[in-house]
Amino acid sequence: MKIHSLLLGVLLSSPVYAADYAGLGAESVSKETLEAFRPKPLEPALSRRIQSMLDISSPSAGLLSPDATRLYFNWRVTGVSQVWRLDGPQRFPVQMTGGEDATQIAGMSPDGQTLVIQRDRKGEENPGLYLQPAAGGALKEIQHIAGVQTRFAFVSDDNQYVYYSANDKQKDSYTIYRYHIASGTKQVVLDQPGLWNIADQRHGRILLEKTITNLAAEYYELNNGELKPLFGQNEKEEYQAAYGAGADELIVQTSKFGNFRRLYQWKAGQFKAISPEINWDVSSFDLDKSRRHISYSVNEAGYIRSFALDASNLQPIKLPAFKDADHVMISGHSPDGRFSLISVETAKSPRLSYRYEWATGKLQQWQQAMSPEVDTQRFARATLETYPARDGTPIPMFVRRPAQCATVTCPVVVHFHGGPEGQTKAGFSPVAQLYVDAGFIFAEPNVRGSDGYGKAWLAMDDGPKRLQVVSDIEDASRYIRAKWGKGGQVPKVGIIGGSYGGYSTLAGMTMFAGAYDAGVSTVGISNFMSFLQNTAPYRRALRIAEYGDPVKDRDALIQLSPINHIDKLIAPLMLIQGVSDPRVPVGEAVQMYDAAKKRNVPAELMLFADEGHGAAKRENRVYSIGHTIRFLEAYLK
């Protein structure tokens, strides 16, 4: 019998819950509810352990100034992301922005005199754009409108205009603007319905991406006011593109012609492969502004490897090797293509960035990671393992184990990633180490529907097909209970995750009740019907393409909604939610908590009034991690 038939049989005897909330954000929940479920204080010793791990700080790679003598980057060392500057390799960092709101560097003018800054409020994901002198100083607002996403694209070659897109005219559509820096005025560049984004620009020509689904896109060129379709129209294929070295050449990343993403040269309507044919995805690519080098990354089973091509002849360029590196990434090119940043991460060291000179091969470390009071060399390395789904499919899974678990049975925490098109990768993870230090085996599956394993794997959970593979959630626990015990003792198993991982947690606790002994869901979907009705308009169409249409696929969405299986919930459940979340409305957590309490199972709810889709501020991250560990220790040990 097929899995979806089994679920339907169960559902027919279960109540179907209608949404008992409307809207999203702070206005959709009462002040009394916010006060009742605000975070409670943590036990000091636990808080201290988490604080120490969060003190391990690794800045983003960032952007080099045009002359490559300065580096601008994002860093959370103050507790929330802000913009910083280095005036030379391993110099003392200068803080450029401050305050309580997450702030990032979005771009820089070609002359290096002006920074473009992006700032959000309370995790609403409605960022504004600002200008700041490259030497530091006050921010000048370009646009920051409540409820509007304003997204940076580029600064014109003459340093006069900032190009950006915003959904200020329609919530589910983006208009393209240009902002005149000197006068502070804006002008519409393109005002057509659609989820438009500027992918690249060159010599007055603008390459436009029109997003169709969360992955698929169409590409157009805007030249002297004329919009010309290039490729992707009516295809629903995945494309990422940028201008190449040739006058009429594009470099395109796509999986259209095989199961895995490759790089192609597009010219005169024809695609020519320029990266090797391998059974791993090209996960990203980039070019410097002068179009001298093409750098690209390959995702090898959750390990990132980087490669490069000469943009003029498409021949491979040898790159330096890094011993024991889990991930190597190239970014932050100087406009003349002379320098780039190479970021390196290992299992026992946070990301370090080096300035790389292409002509000489010279590497110079610029940033310095910090790990006060923590010896990261003791961190558990993630091993790549698999477990069998019930149909025999091997499911990849990264596992970190405490040393003592080699001889005794340890409780297990299974963490499911978000997306659902996300992927858990290897590398450095202080948060994972917190669970290891607490005595848990920490397992992170990449179930069917995850990115990084080809488009066939990625599409296995699209729409109603999710009914066929959602049991991967339960099968992880089945395997762990059968294989990871010692001396005949079966381990207790908990489940956690955020966003779609939060949904996976709720599904594991309800649809597959008994598989897990406790669960913590962060910003998880409890009811697909109410979620699709109330999520932000700009996301609704993209999420329907992934999860299913609420009309055509109504039966499947009802079957897949954890709240419709609440009558099976038997194990303790905790829910964590940001009130300003535009993706998963706060009502998803509140309605699930209310339903769980009616079942008389141990249930907790924690609401962050000043957060969105997950905790970004340091204090709230401590609460989120700390209460999750506290809850799991109470019920798994």
From TrEMBL:
Chain ranges of the Peptidase S9 prolyl oligopeptidase catalytic domain: 428-637
Molecular function GO terms recorded: aminopeptidase activity; serine-type endopeptidase activity
Signal sequence extent: 1-18
GO biological process: proteolysis
Gene: f1pep1
Superkingdom in the source lineage: Bacteria
Enzyme class: hydrolase
Keyword Iron applies: no
InterPro entries named in the record: 6-blade_b-propeller_TolB-like, AB_hydrolase_fold, Peptidase_S9_cat, Peptidase_S9A, WD40
Organism: Iodobacter fluviatilis
Alphabetical UniProt keywords: Aminopeptidase, Hydrolase, Protease, Serine protease, Signal
Name of protein: Dipeptidyl aminopeptidase/acylaminoacyl peptidase
Enzyme Commission number(s): 3.4.21.26
A matching Pfam family: Peptidase_S9
